[in-house]
Amino acid sequence: MWNETIDAHRRSVREAILDSAWTLATEHGVLSVTMTQVAERAGIGRATLYKYFPDVEAILAAQHQRHVDSHLARLIEIRDQHTKADQRLRSAVEHYANICHHRAQHGTEELAALLHRGHQVDHAQQHLATLFEELIADAAAAGHLRNDVAPAELTTYCLHALGAAGNLRAQAAVKRLVAVTLDGLGFSPSSAH
Amino acid sequence: MWNETIDAHRRSVREAILDSAWTLATEHGVLSVTMTQVAERAGIGRATLYKYFPDVEAILAAQHQRHVDSHLARLIEIRDQHTKADQRLRSAVEHYANICHHRAQHGTEELAALLHRGHQVDHAQQHLATLFEELIADAAAAGHLRNDVAPAELTTYCLHALGAAGNLRAQAAVKRLVAVTLDGLGFSPSSAH
To answer: What is the ipTM of this complex?
Structure first.
């Protein structure tokens, strides 16, 4: 009982730290966030903060990881709602375009780039690429995609192209981006719809 | 004569500052660069450095601007080597893919993202988008591209998709990416080649 209470407490402090650092980064820019500001905003002492994280970059990396993990979980759910390779790929592509569309408003993309620059290994981002590569390889094997370019390269293309959704305002534009990107993949679904 | 000498001196100090900050950012990560380190590496005093730039972010922004300006100048040269809309677009797309391929090794992309996060206005990047949008609009008007998506949206797609070149190792893969991206644009050149 007691251990559970401590665990719950630690989790909630951790959440508060991640949320605080993220809010500060969004409001004032990543470069300006300090450990003192994070502690203050999270309502804890600096000494406590250092028991959780060594520096701002580690906090932002953890925050980013939390984001990507949740996106990944949702993508897996969506994939598993379909059984056909073409439907699976299309659903995942549409969902990822929407993620990119929304996250641009929260600056997650830029933060991800910064963390990569800082040589943080981003396992969840790698999982995302692996998930898409499997979907693309399956769709290619079922004859729904061009076969002159390997699935790994098509995956890199696809994820970058969908990233353009971050620069688009209208939801209709995101749908058009999905269509354009799928055309690049040579996507031909089995039943016209 | 005297003024020219002073100008030349100022330019060379400025270049040394930009190069030093960039090297430090590449070696140790953008977040760790300090004004003291930049001054030391550039071989000038801190007081002198502050006469040129107010902070590290301003130095990195100027360095980034220098990069993008040179890419832009080269793209305009390449465009002007051709007269037909389809050839112009194809050449520019190929060249930009190569820029993305090379700059990934230098971390420029990540820095650009960071600077955007910091709300730096990146005029040269905007010029790049404008240049591509003109090429795409011209090629579309000449019937070489799909006409169900506006040139502005196709430009956003195109620049993002080509950014995937940064994740590709082989030059042959970059060529395939160009082909895939052009297929997304519905590119059909006038003379088959």
So the answer is: 0.75
